[in-house]
Specification:
Helix content: 25-40%
CATH class of the largest domain: Mainly Beta
CATH superfamily of the largest domain: Jelly Rolls
Shape: elongated
Distance between the termini: 56 Å
CATH architecture of the largest domain: Sandwich
Order of helices and strands: HHEEEEEHEEHHHEHHEE
CATH topology of the largest domain: Jelly Rolls
Number of strands: 10
Amino acid sequence: MENYLEILMDTELFAGISREDLSAMLECLGARVEAFPKDAYILHQGQELEKLPILVAGKLYIQTDDYWGNRSILGHVEAGEMFGEAFAASRGGSVLNDVVAVENSMVVFLNMSRILSTCSRRCRFHERVSQNLFVAIAQKNRKLVRKLELMSRRSTREKLLAYLSDKAREAESPSFTIPFNRQQLADFLSVDRSAMSSELCKMREEGLLEFEKNRFVLHALSK
Protein backbone atom coordinates (compact mmCIF):
# COMPACT_ATOMS: atom_id res chain seq x y z
CA MET A 1 0.00 0.00 0.00
CA GLU A 2 2.95 2.32 0.66
CA ASN A 3 3.65 2.38 -3.08
CA TYR A 4 0.33 4.11 -3.72
CA LEU A 5 0.20 6.68 -0.93
CA GLU A 6 1.23 9.56 -3.19
CA ILE A 7 -1.47 8.91 -5.76
CA LEU A 8 -4.08 8.34 -3.04
CA MET A 9 -3.20 11.70 -1.52
CA ASP A 10 -4.10 13.33 -4.83
CA THR A 11 -7.55 11.72 -5.02
CA GLU A 12 -10.76 13.65 -4.38
CA LEU A 13 -11.56 11.36 -1.45
CA PHE A 14 -8.43 12.20 0.53
CA ALA A 15 -8.12 15.88 -0.39
CA GLY A 16 -6.70 17.80 2.57
CA ILE A 17 -5.39 14.67 4.34
CA SER A 18 -1.69 14.52 5.25
CA ARG A 19 0.46 11.51 4.36
CA GLU A 20 0.78 10.57 8.04
CA ASP A 21 -2.97 10.71 8.62
CA LEU A 22 -3.65 8.90 5.35
CA SER A 23 -1.62 5.86 6.42
CA ALA A 24 -3.66 5.60 9.61
CA MET A 25 -6.95 6.14 7.76
CA LEU A 26 -6.23 3.40 5.21
CA GLU A 27 -5.84 0.93 8.07
CA CYS A 28 -9.02 2.23 9.66
CA LEU A 29 -10.90 1.87 6.38
CA GLY A 30 -9.69 -1.70 5.80
CA ALA A 31 -7.84 -0.82 2.61
CA ARG A 32 -6.64 -3.65 0.40
CA VAL A 33 -5.03 -3.54 -3.04
CA GLU A 34 -5.79 -5.98 -5.85
CA ALA A 35 -4.18 -6.50 -9.27
CA PHE A 36 -6.22 -6.96 -12.46
CA PRO A 37 -4.73 -8.01 -15.82
CA LYS A 38 -5.78 -6.39 -19.09
CA ASP A 39 -9.37 -7.26 -20.11
CA ALA A 40 -10.26 -8.41 -16.59
CA TYR A 41 -13.60 -7.33 -15.13
CA ILE A 42 -13.25 -5.29 -11.95
CA LEU A 43 -17.02 -4.90 -11.55
CA HIS A 44 -19.85 -6.81 -13.18
CA GLN A 45 -23.30 -5.50 -13.99
CA GLY A 46 -25.74 -6.66 -11.32
CA GLN A 47 -23.21 -7.32 -8.55
CA GLU A 48 -23.65 -5.87 -5.09
CA LEU A 49 -20.89 -3.41 -4.21
CA GLU A 50 -19.93 -2.82 -0.59
CA LYS A 51 -16.34 -1.62 -1.12
CA LEU A 52 -15.27 1.71 -2.58
CA PRO A 53 -12.75 1.11 -5.41
CA ILE A 54 -10.01 3.57 -6.36
CA LEU A 55 -7.80 3.00 -9.38
CA VAL A 56 -4.14 3.58 -8.45
CA ALA A 57 -2.47 2.24 -11.60
CA GLY A 58 -3.68 1.45 -15.12
CA LYS A 59 -6.84 2.42 -16.96
CA LEU A 60 -10.45 1.21 -16.95
CA TYR A 61 -13.53 1.54 -19.14
CA ILE A 62 -17.09 1.71 -17.85
CA GLN A 63 -19.15 -0.11 -20.44
CA THR A 64 -22.30 -2.08 -21.11
CA ASP A 65 -23.25 -4.72 -23.69
CA ASP A 66 -26.78 -5.34 -24.89
CA TYR A 67 -28.35 -8.76 -25.51
CA TRP A 68 -26.82 -8.94 -29.01
CA GLY A 69 -23.33 -7.93 -27.93
CA ASN A 70 -23.42 -4.30 -29.02
CA ARG A 71 -21.13 -2.33 -26.74
CA SER A 72 -21.47 1.18 -25.38
CA ILE A 73 -18.61 2.86 -23.49
CA LEU A 74 -20.05 5.16 -20.86
CA GLY A 75 -16.78 6.55 -19.54
CA HIS A 76 -13.22 5.83 -18.53
CA VAL A 77 -11.31 5.78 -15.25
CA GLU A 78 -7.74 7.06 -14.92
CA ALA A 79 -5.29 6.38 -12.09
CA GLY A 80 -6.26 8.41 -9.03
CA GLU A 81 -10.01 8.23 -9.68
CA MET A 82 -12.61 6.32 -7.71
CA PHE A 83 -15.54 4.59 -9.39
CA GLY A 84 -18.75 2.86 -8.39
CA GLU A 85 -19.06 5.16 -5.38
CA ALA A 86 -22.76 5.84 -5.94
CA PHE A 87 -23.54 2.10 -5.85
CA ALA A 88 -21.33 1.40 -2.83
CA ALA A 89 -22.79 4.37 -0.94
CA SER A 90 -26.37 3.20 -1.55
CA ARG A 91 -25.71 0.14 0.63
CA GLY A 92 -27.13 -2.64 -1.44
CA GLY A 93 -27.55 -0.98 -4.82
CA SER A 94 -26.41 -3.27 -7.61
CA VAL A 95 -23.91 -2.09 -10.22
CA LEU A 96 -25.54 -1.07 -13.51
CA ASN A 97 -22.48 -1.42 -15.78
CA ASP A 98 -19.31 -3.42 -16.24
CA VAL A 99 -15.91 -1.96 -15.39
CA VAL A 100 -13.08 -3.51 -17.40
CA ALA A 101 -9.30 -3.09 -17.30
CA VAL A 102 -7.95 -1.59 -20.53
CA GLU A 103 -4.43 -2.41 -19.37
CA ASN A 104 -2.88 -4.10 -16.35
CA SER A 105 -4.32 -2.23 -13.39
CA MET A 106 -4.18 -1.94 -9.60
CA VAL A 107 -7.25 -1.09 -7.52
CA VAL A 108 -7.50 -0.16 -3.85
CA PHE A 109 -10.76 -1.20 -2.14
CA LEU A 110 -12.02 0.62 0.96
CA ASN A 111 -14.73 -0.35 3.44
CA MET A 112 -17.58 1.97 2.48
CA SER A 113 -19.57 1.36 5.68
CA ARG A 114 -16.64 2.69 7.70
CA ILE A 115 -16.54 5.84 5.56
CA LEU A 116 -20.25 6.49 6.03
CA SER A 117 -20.51 5.61 9.74
CA THR A 118 -18.99 7.16 12.85
CA CYS A 119 -15.43 5.96 13.32
CA SER A 120 -14.90 3.98 16.54
CA ARG A 121 -11.24 5.05 16.55
CA ARG A 122 -12.25 8.72 16.33
CA CYS A 123 -9.87 9.41 13.45
CA ARG A 124 -9.19 13.14 13.22
CA PHE A 125 -10.07 13.44 9.55
CA HIS A 126 -12.88 10.90 9.21
CA GLU A 127 -15.50 13.63 8.80
CA ARG A 128 -13.38 15.31 6.11
CA VAL A 129 -13.31 12.09 4.07
CA SER A 130 -17.10 11.75 4.31
CA GLN A 131 -17.49 15.33 3.06
CA ASN A 132 -15.03 14.69 0.23
CA LEU A 133 -17.07 11.66 -0.84
CA PHE A 134 -20.25 13.74 -1.00
CA VAL A 135 -18.53 16.39 -3.15
CA ALA A 136 -17.05 13.74 -5.47
CA ILE A 137 -20.46 12.14 -6.06
CA ALA A 138 -21.94 15.57 -6.83
CA GLN A 139 -19.19 16.23 -9.37
CA LYS A 140 -19.80 12.85 -11.01
CA ASN A 141 -23.47 13.75 -11.32
CA ARG A 142 -22.52 16.93 -13.16
CA LYS A 143 -20.44 14.88 -15.61
CA LEU A 144 -23.37 12.53 -16.09
CA VAL A 145 -25.63 15.45 -16.95
CA ARG A 146 -23.07 16.63 -19.50
CA LYS A 147 -22.92 13.12 -21.01
CA LEU A 148 -26.72 13.13 -21.33
CA GLU A 149 -26.53 16.49 -23.10
CA LEU A 150 -23.92 15.06 -25.45
CA MET A 151 -26.02 11.99 -26.25
CA SER A 152 -29.05 14.18 -26.97
CA ARG A 153 -27.31 15.60 -30.04
CA ARG A 154 -29.03 14.25 -33.12
CA SER A 155 -26.23 13.80 -35.65
CA THR A 156 -22.81 12.17 -35.55
CA ARG A 157 -21.20 15.52 -36.41
CA GLU A 158 -23.00 17.32 -33.58
CA LYS A 159 -21.87 14.65 -31.10
CA LEU A 160 -18.28 14.82 -32.33
CA LEU A 161 -18.15 18.61 -32.19
CA ALA A 162 -19.64 18.69 -28.68
CA TYR A 163 -17.26 15.99 -27.40
CA LEU A 164 -14.14 17.49 -28.96
CA SER A 165 -15.09 20.96 -27.75
CA ASP A 166 -15.39 19.62 -24.20
CA LYS A 167 -11.96 18.00 -24.44
CA ALA A 168 -10.39 21.23 -25.71
CA ARG A 169 -11.92 23.11 -22.77
CA GLU A 170 -10.64 20.49 -20.32
CA ALA A 171 -7.14 20.74 -21.80
CA GLU A 172 -7.39 24.54 -22.02
CA SER A 173 -5.86 24.15 -25.45
CA PRO A 174 -7.01 23.46 -29.02
CA SER A 175 -4.51 20.57 -29.03
CA PHE A 176 -5.33 17.53 -26.89
CA THR A 177 -5.40 13.74 -26.68
CA ILE A 178 -8.58 11.71 -26.15
CA PRO A 179 -8.64 8.43 -24.16
CA PHE A 180 -10.23 6.37 -26.97
CA ASN A 181 -9.29 4.77 -30.27
CA ARG A 182 -11.75 5.04 -33.17
CA GLN A 183 -13.94 2.07 -32.22
CA GLN A 184 -13.98 3.09 -28.57
CA LEU A 185 -14.92 6.66 -29.48
CA ALA A 186 -17.78 5.36 -31.63
CA ASP A 187 -18.94 3.17 -28.74
CA PHE A 188 -18.75 6.14 -26.37
CA LEU A 189 -20.77 8.38 -28.69
CA SER A 190 -23.16 5.55 -29.68
CA VAL A 191 -22.57 6.08 -33.38
CA ASP A 192 -21.50 3.92 -36.30
CA ARG A 193 -17.70 3.79 -36.58
CA SER A 194 -17.63 4.12 -40.39
CA ALA A 195 -20.00 7.07 -40.36
CA MET A 196 -17.97 8.71 -37.60
CA SER A 197 -14.66 8.23 -39.44
CA SER A 198 -16.21 9.67 -42.59
CA GLU A 199 -17.46 12.70 -40.67
CA LEU A 200 -14.04 13.27 -39.11
CA CYS A 201 -12.44 13.25 -42.56
CA LYS A 202 -15.05 15.73 -43.83
CA MET A 203 -14.35 18.08 -40.93
CA ARG A 204 -10.62 17.82 -41.60
CA GLU A 205 -11.19 18.70 -45.26
CA GLU A 206 -13.27 21.67 -44.14
CA GLY A 207 -10.39 22.90 -41.99
CA LEU A 208 -12.22 22.40 -38.68
CA LEU A 209 -9.61 20.10 -37.20
CA GLU A 210 -6.57 17.89 -37.65
CA PHE A 211 -6.02 14.50 -36.10
CA GLU A 212 -3.46 11.72 -35.85
CA LYS A 213 -4.74 8.62 -34.07
CA ASN A 214 -6.13 9.95 -30.77
CA ARG A 215 -4.42 13.34 -31.00
CA PHE A 216 -6.60 16.26 -32.16
CA VAL A 217 -6.08 19.92 -32.99
CA LEU A 218 -9.13 22.17 -33.41
CA HIS A 219 -9.08 25.20 -35.70
CA ALA A 220 -11.14 28.36 -35.33
CA LEU A 221 -13.58 29.09 -38.13
CA SER A 222 -12.41 31.81 -40.51
CA LYS A 223 -14.81 34.75 -40.81
